[in-house]
Amino acid sequence: MKKILIATEKPFAATAVNGIKKIFIEAGFETVLLENYTDPNDLIKAVADVDALIIRSDKASRQVIEAGKNLKIIVRAGAGYDNIDLAAATEKGIIAMNTPGQNSNAVAELTFGMLVFMARANFKGGSGTELKGKKFGIHAYGNVGKNVARIAKGFDMEVHVFDPFVSKETIEKDGVKGVDSVEELYTTCQYISLNIPATEKTKKSINFDLLSKMPKGATVINTARKEVIDEEGLKSFFEARPDFKYVSDIAPDCHKELLQFENRYFSTPKKQGAETSEANINAGLAAANQIVNFFKNGDKSFQVNK
Ligand code: 3PG
Predict the structure, then answer these.
(1) Neighbouring residues of 35: CB distance < 8 A, sequence distance ≥ 6
(2) Of the residues 23, 56, 234, 242, which has the fewest C-beta atoms closer than 10 A?
(3) pLDDT band at 252 (very low <50, low <70, confident <90, very high)
């Protein structure tokens, strides 16, 4: 009998867990649950005898992967798979997958929750600004970026998009404006939503120079990864530009140093974008179905370590 471990430092909603278990029962698989753990050694122990692993932002490090003696597949229930050591997985012949698009609406909705919070003086009663008619930049047009664009149009914002991998023509089919360069995006837009993955190229790419291009009233909303920010640049930019605001669902390492910029800086304590029962159900069930399809039919769709 195949044994599947669900290891979630930040657990799925109970309905999602029940749904995942049901899928595995029907497939004749056993489910093992490791929730709310804080010590990575617990994951290393739990993975020892399982055939498959479902994780969220949990780290599937080389150590975890090497400890999984029977491991054949790891599914990241979510979009970003920068938490999986892909080289280690590939070396061991383990398939790594994500579940693209399953939690993107949740992340996009939070983007606007945080944006309105910042634009309306942190809900403290002071006078704020409206979003209607303002220039809104979407940095990368994947599943989250597309949902962000849809909602931004509902706010009547002027939506500009840059994605080095998506042509302007494709972007403009959605009724938003494609721009030619990242510099143009930041020069044009007062509001920027970061929807880029954390890769060797994008890490620390949001730096002082790029931020300096933003017009007055600049606000950056980061629901992507803290690693894409050059934190030294971010701190200097907060000092240099008293109009600048930064809001994120993932605290930068310099979180405590930024707390002095009251009303201009906010971060949720834990990664929050995909924290809805709908997103948990979508991503969790997709992960379970992908595992069943892999074992029963050899289906490797969504493999990310090809
Ligand atoms: C993702 O990459 O899918 C999001 O960052 C959500 O991450 P989470 O599952 O840890 O909430």
Answers:
(1) 6, 8, 11
(2) 242
(3) very high
Q: Ligand 1 within 6 A of 274 CB?
A: yes
Task: Tell how far the Cα of 79 is from the centroid of ligand 1, in angstroms.
Answer: 6
What architecture does CATH give domain 104-267?
3-Layer(aba) Sandwich (3.40)
pLDDT higher than 90, residue 306: no
| Dist. CA 80 → ligand 1 center (Å) | 7
Whole-structure pTM value:
0.96
CATH 3.40.50.720 fits 3-102+275-297, yes or no: yes
pLDDT in tens, 85-129: 999 999 999 999 999 999 999 999 999 999 999 999 999 999 999
- C-beta of residue 46 within 8 angstroms of C-beta of residue 32: yes
Measured between alpha carbons, how far is residue 124 from residues 118, 121, 128, 217 in Å?
A: 10, 6, 10, 18
Rounded distance from Cα 212 to ligand 1 centre (Å): 29
Task: Return the ligand 1 atom nearest residue 77 CA.
Answer: 9
Check pocket membership of 137 for ligand 1, CB cut-off 6 A.
no
Going by CA atoms, what residue is nearest to atom 2 of ligand 1? 80
Indicate where the chain has its CATH 3.40.50.720 domain(s). 3-102+275-297, 104-267
What is the pLDDT of the chain when averaged over all its residues? Answer: 98
Q: Is the pLDDT of residue 305 over 90?
A: yes
